[in-house]
Amino acid sequence: DHVDQQSRNLIDRIRQIIEKLPGIREKAKQTIIAPKSFDIGQKVLYYNAAKMNQFSGKLEPKWKGPYRIHEVLINGSYKIREIDGRLLARP
Length: 91
Prior knowledge:
- By secondary structure, the chain is of the alpha+beta class.
- Helix content is 35%, strand content 22%.
- It has one helix and three strands, in the order H-E-E-E.
- The chain has a three-stranded antiparallel beta sheet, with no helix packed on it.
- This is 12989_t:CDS:1.
């Protein structure tokens, strides 16, 4: 019967997806968690975390920039500067 064949095909496809799921999850996790590093002079955007949970400004951009990396700090942080060279005290 045609419906039975479609059901079997669907079940087989679901099994294939379930088998691949752990690998897909691991790849996504590595992509998200993988530390990013930037070089001095590289253009970056600054994520404005203060806007993350605000509903009043939900249509305002959450990213600022572009900026350039000015200095790489020991703790994995960066000092950034405006494109025109002005150093930001705090973004």
